[in-house]
Amino acid sequence: MSAVTFDEVTKAFGETVAVENMSLEVIDGEFMVLLGPSGCGKSTALRMIAGLEEVTSGMLSIGNQVVNDIPPRERDIAMVFQSYALYPHMTVRKNIESPLVANKRTRLAPAEREQRVHEAAEILGLTEYMDRKPGELSGGQRQRVALARAIVRRPQVFLMDEPLSNLDAKLRTQTRLELVELHRRLGTTFVYVTHDQVEAMTMADRIAIISDGRVQQVGRPQEVYDRPENLFVAQFIGSPPMNTISGTLTTGSSGRTVQTAVGSFAVSDGTGAPDGTPVVAAVRPEHMAVATTDGAGLSGTVENIEMLGHERHLLARVDDRVMVARLGPEDPSPAIHDRVALTVDPDRAHLFDAATTRRLDDSAVAAPGNAR
Amino acid sequence: MTTTLGGAPDRAPKRTSQKVREGLLGWLFLLPALAVFVAFFYYPLYLLVDMSLHRENRFGIGDPPYVGPSQIVDTLTGSDFIEGLTNSGLYMVYTVPLGLVLGVLLAVAANRRLRGIRVFQTIFSSTVATSVAVASVIFFTLVNPEVGYFKDVSWLSLDNPDWALFSVSLSSVWQNLGLTFIIVLAALQAIPAEMEEASALDGYGPLRHFWQITVPLISPALLFLAVVLVVHALQAYAQIELLTNGGPGTATETLLYKIADPQGIRSIGTKASMSLGLFVLTAVVAAAQYGLLSKRVHYGD
After folding, report:
1. pLDDT of B42-86, one tens digit each?
2. What is the ipTM, given to two decimal places?
3. Distance from CA of A72 to the nearest CA of B (A)
4. What domains can be seen in chain B, in order of their start residue?
5. How far is the C-alpha of B149 from the C-alpha of B158, rounded, in Å?
6. Interface test with chain B among A49, A81, A106, by most B beta carbons within 10 Å
7. Domains in chain A with CATH codes
8. What angle do CA B288, B291, B293 make, to 5 degrees?
9. Which of chain B's residues have a Cβ under 8 Å away from the Cβ of A162?
């Protein structure tokens, strides 16, 4: 077990900077998910930990050791690839055993090897398939072989690069659980790369959200959901994504409001920003509602209502954008093309500086759920 | 064995006619390939067998008399055929392993991301675009007994009966190198990058990685090349004619050279019988290669 520390690490491929000045501390034993859209640099960051990419500048350490110049095989890490990268000509047994025999210097005694392979196979339920080749296994089984090959060497850090993306939806849900279970059981540091926020939210101890080669926010899943640090995180986390609308901060008779082209809404005070500050307000669909009284909220036209069984999503065209409000089972359903006014829960509107896209601090969400 | 349902009798004839039509269509699609095979393979093979069963008429008048399989047996057990067989076998032994090893070494060396590596890849594969005649002429300028660069190197000498065959075979190795290089390089490039990375993380050093991972993964290409190179070796003719004319003496007369018989000293019946021998030999070698090697070849998922 070991911590992994990025200290102002930069990775450039020629002119292109994939990871820029990244500082991130993965705590010993935690399940850290690097989350971001494709091409954001998350995989490059992971590959630097593995030693498959060289660090251009900065310092990368595993445990107390700076590993910038240490070759992959001496880093004591194991990696699960998106394609699993199993050796097609070897049996499951040989594949799992591979990290234990590859290096002559560190090769274990046959008995111990046998025992470890058996243990790994047992944990992942592979004992019946030991003499098959990867070509004869299903996608889920191959994925387990890849995991077994990773755990058999008892590394300090596990690295996983989108390991679930080749599985079908049902198997993915199941494997998610098993990975969390595996992490609890082993207690080893996991660094897991994905673009799927559901994977991140359900498995991570902490999430690092990455965009354009930079860490946008690091925090527990609930934290990044409740209190996004900037507009990117606000829009990236959550499904359907947050509604955003730009406007100006003013102080009216009823306290602070955001004045927009299509109406205004109140927000809880708390931002130190002066009146007239251009802001972008972001509101989750569940914190918007259809107004029951006239004259309040943002006016728009209903475009569609999506039925999901346990809830409905109301899609309304407001100005030049479509906003989504989540309707509970009790709420009335407006008809399509109706004009509606959408209200915003003042305590749950997030305000971001329009220029920097950073959170205007101590703004709206001093909500109870966040005060833990 | 038919189950009759209501209305089935009406349908049955339709089904039959459809079957016939599909069958005819199938033959129609086969026809072009079949025509080519019959015209250029089966008919010549028939002629070959026919020729080896008849003796050439001395003055070319009248039908050649039937002599039966005895002509084949006499030819295939004669010293002339045995010598050709030995030389062809040696030619194979000289060219196939050396060609494979050199090709793999070059391909491994050229399979990396370096600036300008394409230039080298083009140079290494250029012999594919070279004709046997050109390759032989170039080789001849190198080993020419009077003015060649290597005229004093005994094991390259075309005049030395002990080394002439080896020397000629080297020109074949060089000629075939381009093909081997291209195919091995393609096979190497088909190995997924993640496989290389996984092996690096597992801790394989370069040599063990090569033997444990790379060779099994490119084994289908290697088997293919082994077969092709053997066939090339058994079919080598032009380089022998251009470089040595089968000499010194008969030291570089391979089986095919004896069959082609540029001096015209053997009868048609003898040459036809030798051809049959070569045909069987090629078939046996190819079958043996598939049988022995295919167990060790991995063909992916």
Report:
1. 999 999 888 888 887 766 677 777 887 888 888 888 888 888 889
2. 0.79
3. 5
4. 70-296 (1.10.3720.10)
5. 13
6. A81
7. 4-232 (3.40.50.300), 237-367 (2.40.50.140)
8. 95
9. none
